[in-house]
Every structure is written in C-alpha cells, then in structure tokens.
Design a protein that fits this description.
The structure holds two protein chains of two kinds. Chain A is built from 16 helices and 20 strands. Chain A is of the alpha+beta class. In chain A, the strands form five sheets. In chain A, strands 15-12-14-13-18-20-16 form a seven-stranded antiparallel β-sheet, sandwiched between helices. A five-stranded antiparallel β-sheet of chain A has the order 5-6-10-8-9. In chain A, helix 13 runs antiparallel to helix 14. The two termini of chain A are 36 Å apart. In chain B, the strands form four sheets. An eight-stranded antiparallel β-sheet of chain B has the order 15-12-14-13-17-18-16-19, with helices on both faces. In chain B, strands 5-6-10-8-9 form a five-stranded antiparallel β-sheet. In chain B, strands 1-2-4-3 form a four-stranded mixed β-sheet. Chain B starts with 7 loop residues before the first helix and ends in a 13-residue tail after the last helix. Chain B has 14 helices and 19 strands. The chains are: A alpha+beta, B alpha+beta. The interface between A and B is large, with 98 and 91 residues.
C-alpha cells in the first residue's frame, strides 16, 4: 500500500468505520478473483459501506480525489468484471442487503443492491409472487450484480432476463450525483435509460435502489427429464418443442461428462449415467389442465425426437432433486479438476447440434475435458473446461481452446456472451462482433455516465479498438 | 428556425446535391411544405445522406410511411425509410428475423405468417406503418399484456447517427449481453439518437389458436372482471379495456384475446367462462376479431394527439378518471394489468403540460406519441424528467447527433 492509499483508507474509515476498510494484503486477496479462475487482480483498498448514505459519501470522496473504483456484489461473476487493479478501490456492496419494500398489489419490490437473489425470491413467495431471473448462483449472487450483468438463468426462456424485470433504478453516478431512471410502472421518463443501464457491467455507476417486477408464481408445474443417445438428437428435440409453439419455462441440456460429474457428487439427481445427453423440460402456467395438455404434447415430441425415456417428476421433492443436479452442476464439476472455466456463448438454436460437435472436436484436439450444461431453449451454451491453473502450459491450451469455441459460435451467427458479461475475459473478442464505430459508440455512451471513465475501468469495451467519438455531458 | 423551411433556393441546392449523391431514384415528390424528400435505398445511403447533412448544416426530418407521426417538423429535407423495405432473413426454426426499418408491418406480418412465424406486437396505427416507426416510438399495443413492450421483441438494431455513423447494437440471437445495450436507447428514442435502419426481431410460432372475447359493461365492473381474470391465473395475450367511442359500442368493452397452442387457449377459454360468471363474454368470429383489433389500432392514428402513460397495474381506474376529468372522455384504450393507457383526441398545449405535471406527481410518465409539430415541439415527446435525467439525455443527444441535424421534439420548449 502506498502512502496515498493509507491516507485514503483513513478517510474512508471515517465514513464506514475502520473494520469495513480492508487494507491488509491477506484481506484484499479475498477479493482478487471472481468465479472465473483465469483472472486475478489485487485491489489497493476494499471498502464495505453499510448504508446508502455511506456509499454516497464514499463515492463522493473518491470523486473529489479522482480515484477509480470498482463496484462488486457477491463476486460470483464469471467474466472478471468485478476485479479492481492496484490504484482502484473495490466497493463491496454486500452489506447493502435490505429489502426496502414489497408491494404485492403492484407486483413490485424495492431492494438494495446487495440483496441476494434467492432471498428476494423467498421473501416474495408468501405473496404468491416470484422474482423470475434465477441464475445458477442465485443462492449467493446479488440483485445489484444481476442488474450489472443483465443476468439470466434457466427460467429466462419463458420469463425473460433481468432487463425484463427491472422497472426503475436509483443510480449513483461516478461523480457522486444521483439519478432516477425508469418508473414503478416500467414506462421510462424519456428514453429507456434504465434499460441502457442494465447490463452495463458497473461501467455507468452503482444502482443504489432497484425496483423489480414480480410475477405470479405458477399454479401448475410439470418437470420432465428426457435422455438421449446423442447430443444431436437432444438438440433436435429442442427445435421440435420450440417449433410446436410451446414455450417451456425452462429447457436445459447436459452432456454425458456433466451428467456423470453430477451423479458422482452429493448433488446426484438420478440422471441416467449412460445417456449422451439429458434434457430437463419444465412447463408451467396458471392452469393445471393447460400444463398437463402441453406436457403430453412435449412428451410426444421428445419421444419422436429419439428420447430413450421421458420421466415426469411426481412431486415437489423429485422436482427439486432434478433441478438441484442442474443448478449445482458447476459445483459438481469441481470434482473433475482443480479449476473450471465456465464459458458462455449463444448460437441460433438450429445451430446447436453442429456447434456442439465442433466444440467436442476442439476439446479432443487440445486434450481438454469440456462438459456442456446449458440453456438449450435459448441457444445459450456453457462449455466448461476443467483444468489445473497452476500448469501454465495447460492454462495456455485452455485459453486457445476458449478462443476457438468463441470463434465457432460467432461463425454460427452467435455472440460471445449471453449472460455472464464481457468483463475482462471477453474484451479480446469484442472486435470480432462489433466494428470500431460501434465500439466507439459504446465507449461514448459510457462517457455520458462517467466522463472520467473512473468506474470499473478497463472492462467491456477494448478502448484500443474504438473509433474516436466526442461526448459531452450537459452541465448539471 | 429562420433558415429552415421555405427557403426555395436552399431547397433547390439540397435537391441537386442529394440527387448527385444518391441518384434520381432516391428523390421523392416534396410535400405541401415543399421540403425536399429523399428515400435512400440502403443503410449506407442513409449514412451518406446524414453525413452530408451534418457537414452542410442541414436539418433533417425522419419519416417512415407517413401514416403515424405527422410529417410537419420544420426541416431542410425529409429522409424517409420507405425504400428500406427488405427482409434479409426469416429463420422460423430459430424464431428470429432481420428486417429493414422501412418495411410495412402488414408486409412483414404476411411474410412471417407464410413461414409459420409471428411477431407478438400489435401497435397502434395503420396497417402499413413501418417497423422503424414502431420501434423508434416504442408504441406497443394490446399484446403488450401477454408478450411485453416493444423492446422485449428486439434482439438488436443497426442505426445511423445524426452525423452519419453506422452503429450496430445487440445481435441476432436470443440472449446477448455483449457490450452496452444501445438497442434499448433506440427503442422509444423517437429518432433523437439516430435513424434505425435494420432491426433483428424475436419471433414466436404463429399461434395455432387465436380467439377474441368481448364483454361490455360499466368501466368499473369491467376493471373488476379484468382483475378476476388475472387472479384466476389465466394468461391472455391481450386484456384490453376500450372506451365506447373507440370501440364504437354503447358501453366500455373488455376484450380478451387468447392466442397460443390449442391446449393453452382451450384451458383459458374454460377459465374465462367460469371467471366471468358463466359465459357473459361474447366470442368474436375471426373476421370480427380482426376488424375489432384493426379499428382499435387505426383509431389512434386519426385524431390529432395520441399519448401513452405507464403506471403500476392497480392504478388504471384512478388514472382513467383523471384523464376523463382533465381531457374529457375521448378515445381511450387501457391494458390495466400492464399498467398501460393510451389516449387520443384533441388537446391543447396547456392541458397536456398540466396533465404531465399532475401525472409526474403520481410517478407516472406521459409520452407524447403523435401531435402536430406546433404542439409536440412545445410539449415534447418526453418531459418532467426525474432528477439527473435531463443532462444524461442531452449528453446522449450530443453524442449521437453532435450537429443537431435530426429534428426531433425530444423535450418541450
């Protein structure tokens, strides 16, 4: 730590209290990574404000001193997006974890950014409501982080991603001023700036109060497990279901490597170990008869597409077990190796079978174990590469294989991230999908919110690849 | 404004320069205001025209088919997207399509239907209204109830800025978080941040069952029926409360559209019968239903002023009272569960400004969708910004239209 840092630490401690400023290297190391093991940055200082007022005071102090900072939630992100370099202060928002209001009649809730996704879900459930976006990390990840990344999850196929569930935001801009974006009814005051903010990966400011849309809990649910001899057949079953005009609540796929990892773990869900692929299909709705009729139709489509067996969860316990295997798949894969890179890309649904075969070829060529667990209904792939990050040569192979997987997805008409964000990890791929003009436009928009580019610097847009744009924020 | 409009010499110069730039095929007959009108035939031609306009200091009015927003903004030239009417891709198996902004919705719908695909939007306006017009004004119709606002149907857009830069945002796949979401800036931006030239759309499978039921009655009773339907767990594609004048009926009408798989629709039909006290709803024949929804959409394109307001679901009754009190019982359509209300009729600047202020106090934004220039330039599409929003909007305007070439009544005077 430099002398300047220690002076800053003293001033920050005066706002948040000494124990909420982490200066010791060992303490700061805790925040050196997120959920992705391939990026590591040790922040200069870590601050954990406990109230909105403390947060505002901290950001205003940093603005006055022109110190860069990085907002961070639970650190479950998978893009290296919430890492702070030396010279930047890491603002950890997990203590801002109050649910400020639940209005069942208006189907909304107002929360602080550090509220854990699953805790919000539990709080609104007694009202017959849900907060629909359900990332696999929902028991740990925060709503603020979900907003920053525009997080998805298995049930986004039917219910939409985070952006579809954010009504309004109070945002603390990097200069310390507050703005109110959106309205409780979801109609914007002018252009949809709340929509622009969602998914900005902490580059536009910090959402200090988040108004989320709640939706009614489904009254009827059917969860089915189908297993297949081949990934291609499973992929074709997905297309058949979508083509029939049925929109399942979730439509998830796992390959054999992933199935076995789950079945060998404490999260064993009863998936058939010899299957090349399984599909987890969930149908829900407000009406039992409709859901039963649709599940009959889906069962028929699955069988006609080559499913060896189709099993419907008989009760909530079975349903939970089937889902636990899927949601804890990343954890289960921890058994395969020391480290795991969870990749994220999206391809057109019809390209899934071909892309999966190409990925399998890439894995073989690089001698890597790649397991696939993903949101098949959206075409959102998660090829997971198991490796040991302490082996530099192996790490290099993982990087090269990841790049080839991304290129494959782009060539198929897809994109480099569907829900994990760009952060640091995908910066190098951005010029593959956006030209210099479009990247320049993004950077120019960022400067409207953050003229000094002080919040979460160096993420999302590779500045070297941008064409120059002029930006001016109007005087306040 | 002095350099704009009726300067005949300037108009001739612009006409000659743009003709040389884009060719005779891009020149359209000027309207009654004699503003030269051009229809670039490609996104690149739009970029060329706007880049030139930026350099020359010309002010540009953006038009689509000319059926929605009045073509009366004072400008040196009008740019219409109507020749950008191609549909480069329809992918029924992926449920995506890519269409140029000047395609008419009627043509787009037909081509999608031929491939078994469907776009779950039914915006107000005439059938030939362009896709670009709908996206740039974010005007959702009754299907918003079941399928969400316009932005939820967009996977990406390509737009040209006021100084002629071509920018891509989003992509062609179902989920995408690569880069900042400039698509949402364009959806509902009214062209203030550029001219949309290409749109990537999220589609649905053409509903195999699609039926509309209507119930007439007192507004308060129908609101209650609407709440009962929602409480019963039904999932209509549209649940719309329509004023008598707009529905051309004796009393208010509650229209329920069920669209989707036959199983889903049949279940909801059964629920509708039970929920409304035993079949009080009247089913419309297919052609009646088509006429009903078309009349509703077209009704909002014929009166001089149309606006929308967005509130929390339970506020509709109170807001309908407020509208009737402040502006009179004109043509109104409300999607109570989505909290969306659209009004059309005649209104003065004063009344609209007063209404916007009153609504702002209730945390309800008013977006002016259509109005003659004299009114919309005074009231603005947007207004009553919340704290800190104004400077951000101005900053974004300057970023995407640094020379102020695009004539858009973003905020009131």
């Amino acid at each position: 730590m430099t002398g300047a840092s220690s002076l800053l630490a003293r001033d920050l401690a005066a706002i948040v209290g000494e124990k909420h400023v982490r200066q010791a290297r060992a303490e700061r190391m805790t925040y050196a990574m997120d959920g992705l093991p391939t990026h590591r940055r040790v922040p200069d200082l870590v601050v954990l404000p406990g109230t909105r007022e403390e947060l505002i005071a901290v950001v205003r102090l940093l603005a006055a001193l022109s110190v860069p900072f990085v907002p961070r939630g639970a650190g479950t992100g998978l893009s290296g997006g919430a890492l702070a370099d030396e010279g930047a202060v890491l603002l950890v928002l997990t203590r801002l974890n109050r649910i400020l209001k639940i209005e069942p009649a208006h189907r909304l809730a107002i929360v602080e950014p550090g509220v854990v996704n699953a805790k919000l879900g539990a709080a609104v459930r007694p009202h017959g409501l849900q907060y629909a976006p359900d990332p696999s990390s929902q028991t740990a990840c925060t709503i603020g982080g979900n907003v920053a990344e525009n997080a998805g999850g298995p049930h986004c196929l039917k219910y939409g991603v985070t952006a579809n569930h954010i009504l309004a935001l109070e945002v603390l801009l990097p200069d310390g001023s507050l703005v109110e974006l959106g309205s409780p009814g979801g109609e914007p005051w002018g252009p949809d700036l709340a929509g622009v903010f969602v998914g900005s990966e902490g580059n536009f400011g910090i959402a200090t109060r988040i108004t989320v849309r709640l939706t009614p809990l489904a009254r009827a649910v059917r969860t089915m497990l189908a297993d297949f001899h081949s990934l291609r057949a499973a992929g074709e079953a997905v297309s058949a279901i979508i083509a029939a005009g049925i929109v399942p609540a979730a439509l998830e796929m796992m390959d054999q490597s992933c199935i076995r990892a789950v079945e060998d773990s404490v999260y064993a869900a009863g998936y058939p170990r010899d299957a090349a692929a399984i599909l987890l299909v969930e149908l829900d709705g407000g009406n039992e008869a409709a859901v039963i009729a649709e599940s009959d139709a889906v069962t028929d489509l699955l069988r006609r597409s080559g499913a060896r067996a189709v099993r419907c969860a008989a009760n909530d316990v079975e349903r939970e077990r089937l889902w636990q295997g899927r949601k804890k798949a990343f954890g289960a894969m921890g058994r395969l190796s020391r480290d795991l890179v969870v990749q994220d890309a999206v391809v057109p649904r019809s390209a899934l079978p071909g892309v999966l075969e190409t990925i399998s070829g890439i894995a073989q060529r690089y001698g890597l174990v790649v397991s696939n667990v993903f949101h098949a209904g959206d075409g959102n792939l998660h090829p997971n590469i198991s490796f040991d990050a302490t082996d530099p040569a192996l790490k290099q192979r993982v990087e090269a294989a990841s790049a080839e997987i991304m290129s494959t997805c782009i060539a198929a008409g897809g994109t480099i991230t569907g829900e994990h964000g760009v952060g640091l990890d995908k910066l190098r791929y951005m010029p593959l999908i956006f030209d210099a003009e479009s990247l320049g436009a993004m950077q120019a928009v960022r400067r409207v919110f953050d003229p000094e580019e002080r919040v979460n610097p160096g993420k999302v847009v590779p500045v070297h690849a941008c064409r120059e744009w002029a930006t001016t924020r109007a005087a306040r | 404004m002095s350099r704009v409009g009726n300067n005949a010499g300037r108009a001739v110069t612009i006409l000659e320069k743009v003709t040389a730039l884009l060719g005779e095929g891009a020149v359209l007959k000027a309207g009654t205001d004699r503003v030269p009108r051009f229809a670039p035939g490609s996104p690149d031609a739009v970029a060329l025209l706007l880049s030139t306009a930026h350099q020359e200091g010309w002010r540009v009015r953006i038009e689509g088919a000319g059926t929605w927003l009045q073509s009366d903004a004072p400008a040196d030239l009008a740019l219409t997207t109507r020749r950008l009417d191609r549909i480069p891709a329809i992918e029924p198996s992926d449920l995506t399509a890519t269409a140029e902004a000047g395609i008419g919705l009627d043509q787009l719908r037909q081509q999608l239907a031929d491939r078994g695909a469907w776009l779950g939007i039914d915006p107000p306006g005439l059938a030939g209204r362009t896709l670009g017009s709908v996206v740039s004004s974010a005007t959702a119709g009754p299907l918003r109830h079941g399928f969400g606002p316009i932005k939820d149907h967009l996977l990406g857009v390509t737009f040209v800025t006021g100084d002629g830069r071509m920018v891509q945002s989003g992509g062609r796949v179902m989920k995408n978080v690569a880069g900042y979401d400039l698509t949402r800036l364009q959806a509902g931006g009214f062209g203030a941040f550029g001219v949309i030239v290409l749109v990537h759309l999220r589609l649905r499978t053409l509903p195999r069952a699609d039926i509309t039921y209507v119930l007439e009655g007192a507004r308060e009773d129908l609101t209650q029926v609407g709440e009962d339907i929602a409480a019963a767990g039904l999932t209509p594609a549209a649940l719309e409360l329509v004023s008598p004048a707009l529905a051309r009926r004796e009393r208010w009408a509650l229209a329920v559209r069920l669209a989707g798989s036959p199983a889903l629709v049949a279940a909801d039909e059964a629920g509708l019968g039970a929920g409304s006290g035993g079949g009080r709803f009247t089913p419309l024949r297919a052609e009646e239903a088509h006429a009903f929804w078309m009349r509703l959409a077209e009704g909002f394109a014929v009166r001089p002023v149309t606006f929308r307001i967005g509130a929390v679901p339970t506020a509709s009754d109170e807001l309908l009272d407020l509208l009737q009190h402040q502006l009179g019982d004109e043509w109104i359509s409300a999607s109570p569960a989505a909290g969306a209300i659209r009004w059309t009729g005649e209104a003065s600047i004063d009344r609209l400004q007063r209404l916007r202020r009153t609504l702002a106090g209730l945390e309800v934004p008013l977006t002016l969708e259509r109005a003659p220039w004299s009114l919309r330039s005074a009231v603005g599409h947007f207004g009553a910004y919340r704290e800190g929003v104004g400077p951000l909007v101005t900053g974004l305007r300057r970023t995407f239209d640094p020379g102020g070439a695009l004539v858009v009544a973003t905020e009131g005077e």
